[in-house]
Every structure is written in C-alpha cells, then in structure tokens.
Design brief:
Strand content of chain B: over 45%
Shape of chain A: globular
CATH superfamily of chain B: Immunoglobulins
CATH topology of chain B: Immunoglobulin-like
Oligomer: heterodimer
Number of strands of chain A: 11
Structural class of chain A: mainly beta
CATH class of chain A: Mainly Beta
Radius of gyration of chain B: 14 Å
CATH class of chain B: Mainly Beta
Low-confidence stretches of chain B: none
Mean pLDDT of chain B: 93
Order of helices and strands of chain B: EEEEEEEEEEEE
CATH architecture of chain B: Sandwich
Number of domains of chain B: 1
Radius of gyration of chain A: 13 Å
Helix content of chain A: under 10%
Largest interface: A-B, 29 and 25 residues
Structural class of chain B: mainly beta
Chain lengths: ~110, ~120
Amino acid sequence: DAGVTQSPTHLIKTRGQQVTLRCSPKSGHDTVSWYQQALGQGPQFIFQYYEEEERQRGNFPDRFSGHQFPNYSSELNVNALLLGDSALYLCASSPTGLVVKKLFFGSGTQLSVL
Amino acid sequence: AQTVTQSQPEMSVQEAETVTLSCTYDTSESDYYLFWYKQPPSRQMILVIRQEAYKQQNATENRFSVNFQKAAKSFSLKISDSQLGDAAMYFCAYRSASQGSTLGRLYFGRGTQLTVWP
C-alpha cells in the first residue's frame, strides 16, 4: 500500500513563473492538506481540501490555490512566484473523521525559486 | 492563533542514553491534541506520539514518552535508550479539538535537531 505520494520531488523555477505541485493521498484517504516548510522553520498550514472543496485556509495570499479531484488527489498551484516561496511543500492525507489518528505526510516537493 | 515554541534548536545525546526535548504552547482552548513528529533526512513527517489534552495520563510509545503539564502548557518528549536511527528533526505540533474530527490544521514549532552520537 503506497503512502502519500508527491511529485515532483524537486523543482526549480524563476521569479514570476507559475508552478503546480501534485499529491496522491494514501489509499482510503479523502482529506488532503498542504503545508509550506521554509528552511529552518516548522511547516505552515496552507489549506485543506475535502469533498473537492477548500475547507480551511491558512494565512497565505491568493497566489496560492488548489484543487481536489474526484479520486481525492490534489494539486497546489502557486502563481507569480517570489524568492520567498522557496520551501519544502508537504502534503498530508487522512480518512474522513480520523484526521487526528490517521494523518500521513508525503516526502514533499522541494521548490527553489531563482 | 495558537503558537508552539521549541526553545532548543539543537540537542545531542549519546547512544543508549536518555534525552528530553522541550515544547511549550499558547492556547485559550481547553480541549486539544499535541503531537511530536520526527522528520528524518527523507523529509517525511512521521508521527512519534500523540497526547489528548483531556487525558491526565502521559502518553507512551515504546522508548518515547511525554511529560504533559496542562497548566504550564508544557509538552516535553523523552527518548530513552537513544538509537542512531533516532537522529532527526523533531517537531512539536498542536491541533484544536474544536475543529471536529474531519478537518483540522496543525500548528508546528520550529523544530529541534537531534544528533545521536555512537
């Protein structure tokens, strides 16, 4: 049983570009959350998707947007990239009603903005 | 917003010895969850231990145990019989129980880098 899968593992972009990161949740999981982990920091919550809708959002600008597909996979889109967007982006998934006990993280996508 | 503070950027321990990592948090809520996550070089966050605030008994998972002091808003992690494989970044995290069981965000501290010496 595969865990949470994220792609790509590494990505290099230039300022002003747009990027899409992808996440496949663990089998049986329907809730997906995204976190940004800057160098030397703890992860910061970006948003959470459930039933294909954004349910909660952290303190991130509208340049950060997402989507959840019927198969529960999710995308994180970042427009007009800034140098400060360089970070590890983590995806986490959980089954309905068990986010406390069954939250699993992927290995992340390392985004570098030059 | 809730805040989680880890005041030890780095800690080290000799193999087979015991080490304690500190965490404090700030909240006005009475019901919540606290977690310790481990992040090895593979970057994947791995749950080490979980504590429900309504439980007075401290959680234990094999060599890992916590000291939960609700009044002091303190949540430390004790690793006994440290092993080389315990070397990683450790994050303390908080989750409100008021969000229900389906949704919910975690608030993380800045982490403590643990080195284990042979």
